[in-house]
Task: structure prediction
Amino acid sequence: MGSAAFGVVTTPALAQSSDELAAAGANSQPAIVVTGSRITNPNLEQSSPIQVVGQDEIDYRQATNAEDLLSELPGVIPGTSSTTNNGATGIATLNLRGLGTVRNLVLLDGTRLVPSTPFSQTDLNIIPVALVERVEIVTGGAASVYGADAIAGVANFVTRRDFEGLEAAATFGITERGDGERIRGDLTLGANFDDGRGNAVLSIGYQEVDSILQANRLISQGALGATTGLIGGSGTTVPTRIDGLQLDPNTETLVPTFNSFNYAPFNFFQTPLTRYNAYASARYEVTPGIEVYSRAMFTKSNVRAELAPAGLFGISLAIPLNNPFLNDTLAQQICANATVPVDPATCTAARTATDSSDPNFVAVPVTVNRRLVEQGPRRSSRTSNQFQLWAGVRGDISDTISYDVGASYGEVDLATALRGNGLRSRVEQALLATSPTTCEDPSNGCFPLNLFGGGVGTNIDPRYVAFSDVATLLGDSVTLATATGSLNGTFGETGFFTETPIGFAVGVEYREYNATRTADVPNSTQGEILGNGAPAPSFAGTYDVIEGFAELIVPILEDVPGFYSLQVEGGIRVSDYSNTGTSVTWKAGGSWEPFEGFRFRGIFQRSVRSPNIGELFLPQSIGLTGLTTDPCQLGNPVGNATLTAICIAQGAPSNTIGRIPAPNAAQANATSGGNPNLDVETADSFTIGLVATPPQVPGLIVSIDYYNIKVSDAITTPNPGDILVPCFGPNNDGNGTDPSACNQIFRNPLNGGLSGGPDTPGLFLGLTNQGTLETSGVDFRITYTHPVSFGSLNFDLNGNWTDEQLFQASPTAINRECTGFFSGNCLPIQPEWTINLRTTVSIDDLVDISLLYRWIDNVIFEPIDPTPGILERFRAIDDASYFDLSIRSNVSENFDVTLSIFNLLDRDPPNISQDIGPSSINSGNTYPGTYDPQGRRYSVTGRLRF
Result:
């Protein structure tokens, strides 16, 4: 990673001449103020490693949004993004070091942005990319500077200051398959006024990204089973299954064999997006030493997702035996196979009941699987409106001390609309029918539901679909109000023994967070919206915090033998949270340059993170988690008394042993939510490294940094394996090491499975402070610029080696190592090695030709994962290489064009089946957040400047 002084050097600016480059050299880069400290003296180099994405890199990537600038960097693990379809939240998040999206901060010009979720996650889509000059990523020593939620680091988007003139840019991109179109247009106007005392900037933009359907990629046209290698999918299919038996359309009876439903083609590999944004800033120097400033930002975005048709996913329903679509044979089979069987005579009499008040009326509780293909795909639309205002005054108290006092207020409103799901209550209403066209309760235009016809896609009447397809609405609102005052500067003009003075910064900060969710009745009711995974009940939460902070950088020695420079630094932040009380975050570090061009640096940080609103107040509910195999499924417990006893103790009826179904579509029910009793988590981290800029090799910069981060009392949820393995043992035979883990599993009361409706809590994955997270590794970067007769050559190698990535859900759980492994418990993927190499040839002042090579190390299936029967071809993923080619040309003094081909060699993503991991990460038989499923694609940007 680049250092404070050198990190901005990534690729050369648009084609300097060879004479300019030779004259400049590596050590004459202009001093800049970088992220990671509130001390603004550019002569004081902070000890925290900093990685910089510069203006050239931004141009070459032709980013539609900010996630495109960060998602492929070494050390960045996929968060929620445009590749997330099942589980899409409408935002894009940052996940540094794989420590989670709640343990890093996203800043704009060093200030906090309003969170986009109750979990204090910032949506990268709101960043005004057109005005971004560079992105600085701090991966050590950031918590005491910005707050303890910067455990893993900070990404600071730095905008262009004092922009003057007009800039208009337009981008168009498309895949080689003719889909996934990307359009971006930006117009930026800026002017200085009053002899340069003031500046004002306005930027407006529009972005549109079209969808990529999995049906249009060969790898994802069929949902492959991990144990069969065949196209399968979900056991919720057509025709209907009742208690594990499927309707035979030819005999109109229930039979033990059943087909599956291929849900893959309906999903998106790239979710469509439409976004409008506006950004304005202004500053004015009232008098020398007093400058007022303000900024305003607004973003309106809409993200859409689409899933396969909804269904009755093993939910419990009471089937009226007088349903007009049942025949006598089906009715008797339902009666005989029920968990509590109904005798034949009672069953026959119930067929004659006229309505539910008839004494002969009987409704039999059964589990039903039926894909409601007649309703079409499930569709979601998430519209976000975000605005934030900043205002303040800054200036100089003296020649060496400056001040900055400011405040901001931001708000995000996210409206989610769902269509195509259907409602459980309307299914129940439509099953209670007195004739094929009449419901016993005709309210809301009820039309009977035929679950028992044998045809595929023709036996549910469109009038029922119209009755069932109810739009449901959900609204989230998050606000952030801040006020900050700080002083920074130096003590005098020199230090005690150095020409460089001691730098300091002190200040106070106040923040207040509010989050509210307002849900309609269907969204608030567990199991009401079919195929929705989990409800989203209304809730509200708030907390505030007042903090005091201080930093100090002290030069000790300089320009003496063995000590070209030696300095130490420290920082402290005392925080008083309304929900968890007082905590202290601090850092200590330093740097030593024994001779010019070789600097050693290191820093230690203690962070204490308080839980956010979502972690505290989100109501408990039943959702889904990825699970391929249930140890109690099918014949596994037969003949094994220990395993049988465990399954029954968890709620499986004894008569279901031997026929308990596997999890639907490799997903099991899971209960999770907030925990108001959560306390703080504590993190210790340190980095130590070397930055080399040898004067003997002008243009060469080398940095290497070791990092280690450990989070204790971590606010985490267990993985499914953290419950299943201690309960059932590594061989799924019931010989686990912790029988108490079995008490965290709750089964379907009718069929004993882990899928179903609100009567099946499934696995309890609750938030606790029992977790431990730890990661360590090395970041390295080598950049070299060499002048040649026709211009310059530039090489920029950026890499990460991860030594360990550990997660332990509780002191008695497995301390799981996930570096280089993947499984349902080890996702997103953390390869051991990731490397980016950009090579750029600049030809005079005319053309830059740049090739980016990205390499992702191979990974293998987690060795301790007990999932049986996974085919060998799905147990390893080869290393992956991607090439992106960009050509940027100055067509004229005021106009330049950039052409890019991404995934130049059209590399296919690895096929790992549909079963390994949750559908939010494993989608289309691959991991689209890590590997490219789009294929070769083209992009062109034209930019006009005056």
